[in-house]
Design brief:
The protein is of the alpha+beta class and 323 residues long. It has 9 helices and 10 strands.
């Protein structure tokens, strides 16, 4: 437990903002080594690449595809095949469509399909960013699961911590701190919505949500878990970032980050405020008042009260004799 807390202490100072690695140089070096069939040299590079902070789902999926390729390239021993199968099992959790297998060797691709058919796997496009105030849809499918298998999502919001409060960090690995919600069958998959303001889901602000999905057999046994309490899926709840999920979910964010996961091209400064004399909400009423005043002045200048019509004589109606 203490080791887990030390690992958690490496969390960023403010958990409300997630950062991603733009380029993983160790991954690129391993990719080059695998391409040259230097499999033994590629494996330690891949291990280092996996341990770097800020990896995206795409990074991890590529790491697993290359590792399986390298392991099988070393020789078709039972140990290598088992290690490759375990690696591909991880890959399916990250990349349920198997897009990263495009660059894998043929033996790795064939073994990946064997793993998918022979093991119970929770297939899920992992969330990367969701918009604040919107329902969060958790959707997953099952592969190789017996009838009667149920899916549950466990989630909690990360506190904003200083990295030194061990009591606070301990809550992040306490199952009792995670809300448990069952996913309902929906068109060949399972899904449910986490609604803002319900069950601890934030209704405003920027936050990081931890979650993982468990497959529980009809006898109550845990069959598989996509993510776990110690290695959860982390999703950014943001008021500004675009929604994204899956292997490419962080691509839009990565476009603005450098290798260290910080802004390579800071956003431009905000536009200066519009001068008051160009703002319609101000000049509109003022202009309307001026126009109205001009119209009134014109009307007042051209309109005259009618004068009595002059009559001849003194204006007397004359003498009238009554009968």
């Amino acid at each position: 437990m203490f080791a887990s807390l030390l690992a958690l202490a490496a969390l960023p100072t403010r958990a409300a903002e997630m950062q991603y690695r733009g380029t993983n140089q160790n991954l690129e070096e391993a990719r080059s080594l695998v391409g040259k069939a230097r499999f033994e040299e590629a494996l330690p590079e891949l291990l280092t690449a996996e341990q770097l902070p800020g990896n995206t789902n795409r990074h991890l999926a590529d790491i697993y595809a290359l590792r399986a390729t390298a392991l099988l390239g070393l020789g078709a021993t039972e140990e290598h095949k088992q290690d490759a199968a375990n690696t591909l099992f991880l890959l399916w959790h990250i990349d349920p469509q198997g897009t990263s297998l495009a660059s894998a060797s043929l033996p790795a691709k064939e073994l990946a399909q064997e793993v998918r058919k022979s093991r119970t796997i929770v297939l899920h496009d992992r969330l990367v960013t969701v918009r604040t105030g919107q329902p969060i849809r958790i959707r997953a499918r099952l592969s190789g699961a017996p009838d009667g298998t149920s899916l549950f999502v466990r989630y909690r919001t990360e506190p904003e911590n200083d990295g030194n409060d061990l009591a606070q960090l301990a809550t992040l690995v306490d199952p009792e701190e995670f809300v448990r919600v069952q996913l309902e069958p929906a068109g060949g998959a399972f899904e449910n919505y986490l609604r803002p303001g319900v069950g601890g889901v934030p209704a405003d602000g920027d936050h990081v949500l931890r979650y993982y999905i468990e497959a529980v057999g009809p006898d109550g046994r845990l069959l598989d878990s996509n993510g776990s309490i110690r290695l959860p899926i982390r999703v950014q709840i943001s008021q500004t970032r675009a929604e994204g999920a899956g292997v490419g979910g962080a691509d839009m964010i990565l476009a603005t980050l450098d290798e260290g996961g910080v802004a390579a091209h800071p956003p431009p400064p905000p536009r200066p405020p519009t001068p008051w004399y160009q703002r319609w909400e101000i000049i509109g009423p003022v202009g309307g008042a001026i126009v109205a005043g001009v119209v009134i002045g014109i009307v007042a200048g051209t309109y005259h009260r009618p004068e009595p019509t002059p009559t001849s004589g003194s204006g007397s109606l004359g003498l009238v004799n009554m009968p």
